[in-house]
UniProtKB/TrEMBL annotation:
Domain HTH luxR-type: 11-76
Protein known as: LuxR family transcriptional regulator
GO MF term (any one): DNA binding
Protein's organism: Cellulomonas cellasea DSM 20118
UniProt keyword annotation of Hydrolase present: no
Length: 78
């Protein structure tokens, strides 16, 4: 996903808004850390982070970490 596509995605309202935790997890994905490290920072299990990541990906219409990071940057989350 290019930055232009990410920006275009932002212009279209999300069918479901991101939860506060989904926004936090998306911001964390932009750093060079594993899901385990994100989980430890947020005091939750790795499976909880995986579930939040999957939910956020579905809502913003991406399928990879790189696309999610581009979307998050365009949205000002990271």
């Amino acid at each position: 996903m290019s930055t232009i596509e990410a920006t275009r995605t932002l212009i279209t309202p999300l069918a479901e808004p991101l939860t506060r935790r989904e926004r936090v997890v998306l911001a964390e994905l932009s750093e060079d850390v594993t899901l385990e490290e994100i989980a430890a920072r947020l005091w939750v299990s790795r499976n909880t982070v995986k579930s939040q990541v999957r939910s956020a990906y579905r809502k913003i219409g991406v399928s990879t970490r790189a696309e999610a990071v581009a979307w998050a940057r365009a949205a000002g989350l990271s």
